[in-house]
């Protein structure tokens, strides 16, 4: 599951939790310098744009810049194009591991995508070097791999008759300690902010945390199974989560979610 490209993305299920996923995207966007959206002939890139929700908000925040969303998933790109009317926002198919901008970038923005790429930390200095002096690289990645939501995937995978089929799923790519990103980027930066936030996400409904991860981290497991095994595995995982994330007195399930933010300004 370290390779987001080989996973089929279910745009509708992903968007079910769009509000919770939007909050960190906006927190990251809040650190962008408006001047970088006004550089003549420079674009803002949304790397791993998914269904384009954030690309469209970037275009509202930066009304003078072309905004280009890049993603490897045809399904996500189709959704993004079908929901976007502003001709200033365009979407291209591409692999983030080999990203080459068509227009020079003033801002490289990425919300919840690089955690899918092996060795992403080694790509970040190269991304920063694509920017002009003062340009910004802004990245948010979930860093929740040690939480029960993610640890229970492995626990459920090895605890049933599906065990042999699920050994093919590669472990989640590690998002490193914050200081590792600081050390790698600092020599190239005039300013660098690295921080973490833990969002106490209030969820509702049946199996809310399992539903949440079904559209992201759990997908590579589900895709390897046929019915009825697929549902049996899902239920085993959901049962583990029900213990880890109890429903509160008001019917809400709190799902704490740790995220890492990096905002780097090119020296
Ligand atoms: C969790 S979604 C985030 C989408 C969007 N940034 C958002 O926050 O709503 C991750 C996206 O990264 C894309 N992705 C994963 N690996 C990729 C790669 N190597 N190259 C391009 N896109 C990739 C997936 O297709 C998916 O749309």
Gist?
With 267 residues, the chain is of the alpha/beta class.
Features:
267 residues; alpha/beta; Rossmann fold; 22% strand; binds S-adenosylmethionine
> How many strand units?
7
Assign a percent range to the helix content: 25-40%
Major β-sheet strand ordering: 3-2-1-4-5-7-6
Ligand list: S-adenosylmethionine
Going by CATH, what is the homologous superfamily?
Vaccinia Virus protein VP39
Largest sheet: 7 strands, mixed
Supply the CATH class: Alpha Beta
State the end-to-end distance. 35 Å
Total of DSSP H or I helical runs spanning 4+ residues: 11
Return the string of H and E elements.
HHEHEHEEHEHHHEHHHE
Radius of gyration, Cα only, in angstroms?
19 Å
In round numbers, the mean pLDDT is 92
**Strand composition percent:** 15-25%
At CATH's second level, what is the architecture?
3-Layer(aba) Sandwich
Shape verdict: globular
Unreliable runs, pLDDT <50, ≥5 residues?
none
User: Pairing-aware structural class of the strands and helices?
Assistant: alpha/beta
How many structural domains can be distinguished in the coordinates? 1
CATH topology: Rossmann fold
């Amino acid at each position: 599951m370290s390779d987001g490209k080989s996973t089929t993305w279910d745009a509708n299920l992903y968007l079910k939790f769009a509000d919770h996923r939007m909050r960190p995207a906006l927190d990251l966007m809040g650190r962008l310098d408006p001047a970088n959206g006004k550089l003549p002939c420079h674009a803002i890139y949304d790397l791993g744009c998914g269904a384009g929700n954030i690309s469209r908000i970037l275009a509202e925040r930066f009304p003078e810049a072309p905004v280009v969303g890049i993603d490897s998933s045809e399904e996500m790109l189709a959704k993004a194009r079908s929901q976007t009317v502003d001709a200033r926002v365009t979407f291209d198919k591409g692999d983030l591991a080999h990203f080459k901008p068509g227009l020079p970038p003033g801002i490289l923005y990425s919300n919840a995508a690089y955690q899918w790429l092996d060795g992403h930390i080694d790509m970040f200095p190269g991304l920063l070097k694509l920017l002009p002096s003062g340009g910004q690289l802004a990245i948010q990645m979930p860093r929740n791999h040690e939480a029960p939501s993610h640890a229970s995937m492995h626990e459920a995978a090895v605890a049933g008759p599906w065990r042999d089929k699920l050994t093919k799923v590669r472990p989640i790519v590690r998002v490193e300690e914050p200081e590792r990103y600081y050390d790698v980027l600092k020599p190239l930066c005039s300013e660098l902010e690295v921080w973490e936030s833990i969002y106490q996400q209030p969820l509702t409904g049946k199996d809310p945390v399992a539903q949440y991860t079904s559209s992201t981290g759990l997908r590579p497991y589900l895709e390897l199974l046929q019915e009825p095994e697929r549902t049996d595995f899902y239920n085993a995982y959901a049962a583990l989560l029900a213990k880890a994330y109890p429903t509160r007195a008001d019917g809400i399930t709190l799902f704490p979610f740790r995220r890492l933010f990096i905002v780097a300004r090119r020296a």
